[in-house]
Specification:
Helix content is 52%, strand content 12%. It has nine helices and five strands, in the order αβααβαβααβααβα. Helix 3 packs across helix 9, helix 4 packs parallel to helix 6 and helix 6 packs parallel to helix 8. The chain is globular, with a radius of gyration of 24 Å.
Length: 217
């Protein structure tokens, strides 16, 4: 009887230990992994004319973290970049990251419009970038732009629909106008009238953040 109890005890202890570990594992709250957002754009993304921590990227990261999201927003903005330049460097930027982004905010096209570049070329470049990101299975939030009205109605009619049309064609989320609430407001822009100041960035981030959160879901 004593010998049998000893054998049973030796068998039972590992079983109890295994069950205890299993229960403890199940009981532990899941630790969410940090999500990586790639902000890929031009000077509006890069933070042209702004001090450290004042640009859209650091402000957006701070806003999302304050809202309870565990995220890191990587700044891949290049001042003066066009959709042609973005298309040329997209693969290199993605390869330089240690992990695949959970979301790409694609913000390009403003410099195309300012230079009067043929909207057909802008559309082709954005279409190619969206196609590349789709093949890589990376979610996208496409940030729309609007043509300056001094270029005429014909140019605006050709340029403005590029973003909603491509977003629908590729099945990606669309933020209709990156400078919504800021464009043409002297109080929210720097002296050049094109780049948001720190106060303007706050407006952009407050309006953009809900769309970013939705896209991450």
């Amino acid at each position: 009887m004593t010998r049998g109890y000893g054998v049973f005890k030796r068998m039972f202890n590992p079983l109890v230990l295994s069950l205890a570990v299993l229960v403890a594992t199940i009981s532990l709250p899941a630790v969410a992994a940090e999500k990586l957002i790639l902000a890929f754009g031009d000077s509006l993304t890069a933070g042209y004319g702004l001090g450290p921590g004042e640009g859209v990227v650091p402000r957006l990261e701070a806003k999302l973290r304050a809202d309870g999201l565990k995220v890191r927003v990587h700044n891949a903005g290049v001042s003066g970049d066009t959709t042609t330049g973005g298309r040329a460097r997209l693969a290199w930027v993605l390869a330089s990251l240690k992990t695949k982004p959970d979301l790409v905010i694609l913000e390009l096209g403003a410099n195309d419009a300012l230079r009067g570049i043929d909207p057909k070329l802008t559309r082709a470049n954005l279409d190619a970038m969206l196609g590349d990101l789709k093949r890589r299975k990376i979610r996208v939030l496409l940030a729309g732009m609007m043509a300056p009205r001094n270029l005429g109605q014909d140019y605006a009619r050709a340029f403005d629909p590029i973003y909603p049309t491509l977003a629908k064609a590729h099945g990606v989320a669309l933020y209709p106008f990156f400078l919504d609430g800021v464009a043409a407001n002297p109080k929210l822009n720097q002296a050049d009238g094109m780049h948001p100041n720190a106060q303007g960035v706050r407006v952009i981030v407050d309006r953009l953040a809900p769309a970013v959160k939705q896209a991450l879901r």
